[in-house]
Amino acid sequence: MQRMPMEAPWKRHMKPDGPGRIRISKHGRMLTDAILVSDENHMSGHTDDRSPTQLVNTASLPGIVGEAWAMADWHFGYGFPIGGVVATDVDWGEQGGSISPGGVGFDINCGVRLCSTDLHISEIDPKHLAEELSMKIPAGASRKGGVSLGDSELDDILAGGASAAVDLGLAEARDLSCIESNGLLNSENRNVGSKAMKRGSSSLGTLGSGNHFMELQVVDRIVDEEAAKAFGLRIGQVTAMIHSGSRGLGHQVCSEHVANIESNYSKRGDTWFSEKWGFSVPDRQLASAPIHSSEGESYFDAMNAAGNFAFANRSALTQRLRDVLRNEYSVDGGLDVVYDVSHNIAKIEEHHVGGGRCNCCVHRKGATRALGGNHPELSSSFPLGQPVLVPGDMGTASWVMAGPVNGSNDAFSSSCHGAGRRLSRTAAKASVDSELLISELEERGIHVRAKTPNVLSEEAPEAYKDVDEVISLTNRAGLARPVARMRPVSVIKG
């Protein structure tokens, strides 16, 4: 007799919680409720129970405050679901609440940068530019083509982020005010090991592989005229989007600190327990340390150093794009940075929680900030709210959204970071012919160039959720509002 699969326990505690939201009430080991940015239709189209289960598990992290959130692009990840947002109380207990490397991910400060140009789509040859960019922008898993840095120069990058890239002639100072945190995270000790340093010594200014890309796009829809004008966006305009992170350096930093923190846990029944800290987690991949412990402080410092490398990396890629445009048009096309957002990072922030103020460690894994226009960290250039950058897939579109004009949303000022995967890489590779895909996209005026052809199967449009649906859910949930939509015309992949 065939056994029916057991229903995930969280399904019995799930209920609608207003437009675009589903609440999973606290049960079992959960210390707080969890919220999925979703609706019944969205849930029915994504039947994999693993991601909501991961979200439920994060709600048991020691020191958690508020709710555990999953943005509309949620899908399965390491420990946390991609799209997960969890805040812990920095002042909880003797050494503070949890900081979890699994809540940041292996590509530390992977993020997205949007640039505007003075070019109209009628003024460029997208196919030709795709060829030029594929030759001039280093992409793929290797470090080939990256900037060679000595130990001292690399340490400057780890300490100074985007501003250090400016000092080295790899970026422009005018871009700094349009980067989250001005492109600088505080790292006093740079707890980055020799292996990570070696991996970072020649990878600056490279895209990487997987879902990383550089795209030339055209603005094809404007929803919020006032915000679009403030962001410098108009119909028919050529824009550029860059998606990359901290490359092998960040991956190595995460791997080493994951191993260090996980070594303090052992299996106890159906949980993992740290005798050292008295922390208990349902999944080893959620292993965390108190934020004020030596292990927690060491990870946070190293994470920030890797985050600075990522800011510098996207800055160097921007400069390489400017060089291509200068070569083609004698000028750089008036290329300006609209904004640069992080979506794999943990930050210490102050938020309203339970009627009071809380100094929080906010984990955003595959989620971006969506600050209000009056937030003190935000440049005065954005009085209508922070630009929120949401790449879709290479066959459809990407979006710019905006945070609130004033104040903050109740998801710790967070929003989605992309369309989110619908198919695993394995499933996509098995069902998509990369050569046929290139041909089909070419017919639609989308010119794709990839260093590794099989990457295209993994990154095919059908592997991703409908980005317009993700935008709609995010808007309905009150987290960010849509501003402008961009369609890809030239795509560079690793």
Describe this structure in words.
By secondary structure, the protein is an alpha+beta fold. It has helices spanning 40-44, 50-58, 126-136, 151-167, 194-200, 225-231, 247-262, 294-329, 425-431, 434-443, 454-458, 467-476; strands at residues 14-16, 21-24, 34-37, 64-75, 82-89, 98-99, 111-120, 213-222, 237-244, 266-268, 271-274, 279-281, 289-290, 336-342, 344-353, 356-365, 367-369, 387-390, 398-402, 414-416, 447-450, 481-493. The strands form five sheets. Strands 7, 8, 9, 14, 18, 19, 21 and 22 form an eight-stranded mixed sheet that branches. Strands 1-2-3-4-5-16-15 form a seven-stranded mixed sheet, sandwiched between helices. The chain starts with 13 loop residues before the first strand and ends with a strand. 58% of the residues are buried.
Beta-strand proportion: 25-35%
Secondary structure tally: strands: 22
Helical percent range?
25-40%
Radius of gyration: 21 Å
Low-pLDDT ranges: none
From the spread of the alpha carbons, the general shape counts as globular
User: What value does the average pLDDT take?
Assistant: 94
The end-to-end span amounts to 48 Å
Largest sheet: 8 strands, mixed
User: What count of helical segments does DSSP give?
Assistant: 12
Strand-pairing-aware structural class:
alpha+beta
